[in-house]
Amino acid sequence: MEKKEIEHISILKKEVVEGLRVAGNKKFIDCTFGLGGHAKEILKKLGEKGMILAFEYDNELFKLVKKKFSREKRLILVNESFSNLLRVVREKKFFPVSGILADLGIGNFQIEKKKGFSFRRNEELDMRYNPEKQKERAKDVLNTRNEKELEQIFKKYGQIKVAKDLARKIIEKRPIKTTFQLKEILFDFQNKEKKIVRKVFLALRLATNRELENLKDFLEQTILVLEKGGRLAVITYHSLEERIVKHFLRQKRKFLKILSKKPILPSFSEVQKNKKARSAKLFLAERK
Description:
alpha/beta; DNA polymerase, domain 1; 13 helices; 43% helix
């Protein structure tokens, strides 16, 4: 039986390409390559000598797309976190950079293929994007942190009101090894907090992969990488990401011009075709 290929519909593709002013033989960076949806649109608009430097931190997904895009000479793929943006750009001598894209959404590949990302399957609570480079799994976070540390994780990354009680319950029920074990504990809190399962899984994912910390590191480096007039495009999906991006753009007005007062949202027709687009917001800025 043939394996079904994972599909992922990239969001706001047209708006990203227009916002980055993709054209000619310029150099662009796709910091969250995934299955290459945005990169393919950028490549269509680039000249023969235009280039994309693409980051894909998920080691399994990297191997897949490396093979899939092996014939595309205008694409340089690296198995790196975008938090290492400046180092990789220097190593690859990838200057000048006309545009940088970061789509912060989790892909279907992780949800369907990686352990622990989905609460709909009973499997090990892993949640690492890159087990080759990351030691700590989500279950390690749950089973080794003290009560106060767990409470802070649930508050900071999940914005969970019952964080204190939940942390205490986690300590009582340890060790917790699987998604369904965790879900069973969370059922007791469903009447006290809406969407508790989604919030806890998000909090664990963010903590395990240091996603918000990596986002902050990445944003700071974009100023050093972009040429004058170069553009930054960031797509956020939840309030924690959005808050970090907004704060960064406000703080760096000396270096960046914000291109739209409000973030760009997907069209009604795009949301109708792809429900995951509902929470997407595109922020655009230009290097002064």
